[in-house]
Automatic annotation (TrEMBL), chain A:
Organism: Shinella curvata
Entries under Pfam families matching the protein: SBP_bac_3
Keywords: Signal, Transport
Domain annotation Solute-binding protein family 3/N-terminal: ranges: 35-265
Gene3D superfamilies: Periplasmic binding protein-like II
InterPro entries for this protein: Bact_solute-bind_prot3, SBP_3_CS, Solute-binding_3/MltF_N
Alphabetical list of CDD domains matching this protein: PBP2_BztA (cd13692)
Name used for this protein in its record: Amino acid ABC transporter substrate-binding protein
Signal peptide per UniProt: 1-24
Similarity comment: family membership: Belongs to the bacterial solute-binding protein 3 family.
From TrEMBL, chain B:
Calcium found in the keyword field: no
Protein name from the UniProt record: Amino acid ABC transporter permease
NCBIfam families xrefs: HEQRo_perm_3TM (TIGR01726)
Protein's membrane topology: Multi-pass membrane protein
Amino acid sequence: MAKKIVTALVGAAVLGLGATAAQADTLSDVKAKGFVQCGVNGSNLAGFGAQDSAGNWAGLDIDICKAVAAAVFGDATKVKFTPLSAKDRFPALQSGEIDLLARNTTWSVSRDSQLGFDFRAVNYYDGQGFMVKKELGVKSALELSGASVCVQSGTTTELNLADYFRSNNMDFKPVVFEAQDEADAAYNAGRCDAYTTDASGLYSIRLKMANPDDHMVLPEIISKEPLGPAVRQNDSKWFDIVTWSHYAMVAAEEFGITTANVEEMKKSANPDIKRFLGEEADSTIGADLGLPKDWAVQIIKAVGNYGESFERNVGEGSPLKIARGLNGLWTKGGLQYAPPIR
Amino acid sequence: MALADARTGSGEPPKVSLLYNPALRSVVYQVVTLVVIIAAVWYAWNNVVQNLARANMTAGFGFLNSRAGFDLAQTLISYSSDSTYFRALQVGLLNTLVVAAAGIVTATIVGLLVGVGRLSHNWLVARLCTVYVEVFRNIPPLLVIFFWYLGVLALLPSIRTIFQHLKEDPDAVFFISNRGIYMPAPVFGEGFGVVFVALLIGIVAAIAFTIWANARQRATGQRPPVLWVNLALIVLLPLAVFIVMGQPLTLDYAVPGSFNMKGGMVIGPEFLALYLALSLYTASFIAEIVRAGIRGVSHGQSEASYALGLRPGQATRLVVLPQALRIIIPPLTSQYLNLIKNSSLAVAVGYADLVAVGGTILNQSGKSIEIISIWMLIYVSISLITSLFMNWFNAKMALVER
């Protein structure tokens, strides 16, 4: 008995110690250790966080991590990735194991306040959908009453699912998995009739199925899922760097700056562009953020502007072929909008 | 000096340095241990409080009363997404207890059979049992769970196949599919309570009759027909009451719904995979314990009982097994505890046990420390209660010295 209590206490002490390591000032921490520790999707979510056969990471979320590394160190390779499950991601950020969480994570008020995180930048506007086998003959999510639905535990998806069926007076049988891979396998084996997660995830998971054409994504989008990077609360310096790394990518697209033309653009006569790229003589934007003067140039060189990153990872340049839609620039009917950089 | 005292055999006890005083040393050690423990507790607690404050998070168990918001697959008590986190934890705890209890019963039976089988004189039976033990004892339990879930249960006929089959054979009532085993559910009508009471009376009467029969055997040497009378009391009595009451029991059959079977009773593949894996895995260890227990009883004991005129069955039941149990029970307790703790592997196949439900709550509410303490507290309690019961049973079975 006494032994068990001691074991429990040691466990609690270790938990506490983990938190001690989390310094209030993440930027100094990151600079001291020489790399950014980034929490990403651990189940190979193509387009957001996935490893190729050579072990190289790629995806929209990976680009945010690289952009932050490029801004801080001028070197996008100074980043290490921690693959996380939906369930492990929040404790990992709370305990200080990672500096930044970029794991297709929905920004919601309870995560922002109760969990002690900060969100602002949204690198993908998503919504929850359903995928079914075509042979079921289902054309709408409203026809799913009585279905078994595969879902990942500890996600906003799991909560939306319950609310959606409840508000439409339908019943369902949840089949809940902790890891996305297990949910994929169960859906593939016919354990569930439908699979639900963010629509972008559904497209990515559909590609993993033995025969993607046998599956279809239903038209209903049942929730708002703004996905974005999260950091620990009360660390506004680090929060600013992560936020503005994303806005720099969006601003670059607004200005028409790409990886290819960034050096040329430095010579632009447009004062907005010169200021943005750190070419204005007395500009202190970089220094005020705690970054080198050419931070934006480094980001664009490393990952390109937001449009380039989007097309490469999830758009036409990728197997997912997702349209820009909500993720287009505000000038083109989308929601991506960078506050002024001045 | 000391020698002189010892020789005269009188005077004060020998003076030793305080450093070597056994009483003092023992007190000092205990005080040091206590101080270390208190310091560790204080450090851990202080650390938790400080770090929570730094992360702008609050500690406490008030969150258990908020709405859960998620649905669960297997619920033995009423539960919906409107229930509280606390209710969800209760559902999870019940699911853990169900799978652990079912697993312990099955593991014990299978383990006993295999353990005895390994000692069999039948070459084939003994070898098969050896293979069973060596295979299951040497595979991690998680793999055994995956084997059942993905390797066996997932390959069963799909629900569509069953719908098809029902069109050809509308009278079928029992289905095995990759969504679980469907069977008719009993619906207890009015008056079934009387049948249940009759069954209880039958069991109590059977126990009383056995005690009386044993006393009579000791007094007169004659053995009344215990088996037949008990069978009549336990089976025939409730059956007669059941018929008299007008058979107050109907069956609710599973019928095809839009996506799944509706009605009836279903045992999900998640439960089955976990239950089969835990039972068969633990059974291999129990088999070895049983074999060791039987081997541990001296051969002279069975020879002596044969010499007294007992038949082999009687010798095993009355002489060998009671002695073997004394050896078996303590390690058996550890195996039960292992099985209970291994049930937390449920999370791998999505069975809604305490850890799976707690994990979801942890993630939705962010209360890691609270949830982890609840987990630890509950598992420690379940384990201690099991231990207490097994210790009581062990004491009852222990050698009574006269």
